[in-house]
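Session log. Operator J.P. requested a structure for one protein chain; no other inputs attached. Running the standard single-chain path with token output.
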Amino acid sequence: MNQSIAILCGGGPAPGINTVVGSIAKTFIKDGYRILGLHEGYKGLFSAQPRCTEIDFVLADQIFNRGGSFLMMSRFKPSEDDFSNRFNLDFFVKNNVKLLVTIGGDDTASSANRIAKFLQQKNYAIANIHVPKTIDNDLPLPHDIPTFGYHSALAESAHIGAIVMEDARTSGNWFVVSAMGRSAGHLALGIGSSCHYPMIVIPEMFNKTDITVEKIVNMAVSSIIKRKILGINYGAIVVSEGVFHFLSDQDLKNTGVHFSYDDHGHPELGKLSKAHLFNELLEKKLSALKIKIKTRPVEIGYEVRCGIPTAYDLVYCTHLGIGVHSLFTKGITACLVYLDTDGEVKPLYLKDIQDTISGKILPRGVNMQCDRVNMVFNNLLHYITKDDYSAAKVYVANPSEYDFNQILGWN
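Structure written below.
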């Protein structure tokens, strides 16, 4: 029986998945391997009848430059009970699978390692190589190397963000834009930087103070007042959804917004538009201050996950797919594949990036110390500083409450 390569995709989609899958298939097919694409992520490996498609060259050639994912995805994360009672060992044995390629984020990578160790205990040795994917760009690759899908998602997000800003100029309104980013603000920062938004709010900014609703709202008000002082009556604020995940449950309850709650009593933020939530809070604040501004919410997230990959990601993902073959032929396993700054294919071993206690891969946040970030915050944004207090008193009694640097404790 021919040896096989199994591929699965976990988590949410990102532009370039099909490019990785197609490139892996084309590269291994020429060496005589069968390519088995598993649908629904890890679900297939923990069910008696996994959904599986054998990928030949023609299929690989049809999908490699498409958006979305030909292989259906899921966020299924196997439990210990799944491993004990539902693991489909026969799939590996009957198909002579020699390599499991996983495409996804931190959870997908960690589960791949668990499966390889489990198979080793069952005397079925298998290699596993992970291809890091997320539009959040928060996997800890060396030298700030991006995760695939980020640049394509950012390109589409920046397109939407630029149209929003043009609407703000045309209508004389303000827009509140929420951008995906579960724990890091890379996408929001990219949108704000590329569209010259006067205010960007990301969780990494709060490196010297706790994140609260009041601080987020006050930074938005700070930008609005500063632009009024400058004679500019329009603008846009981009907020990373990650900031909401750092808010305390009590802080969220105090907003007066009605949430549904999970079994642990935590607000289910995923069911709510962050842009609408923040816009509502901002409107309440502006009304209390008697500042007449129209604000409108815009959500950016699901709209950019399945876009057609840009040339950057088409090339990058092609290299990553071929890079899987390169590492495998060298006998390298239990790693992420990446290309270093010199274009060399390298492994990043999971054991080197996992937390020693929890086993989780810690997310990579925006580096608030680098010039690339500081130049944006110091030069592009509009916000109140001490020099503006006198002019700002026309709009608020105590301008220091809206001093950007004081809010963040950056003084």
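Operator note: Residues 152-305+381-408 form a domain with the Rossmann fold fold (CATH 3.40.50.460).
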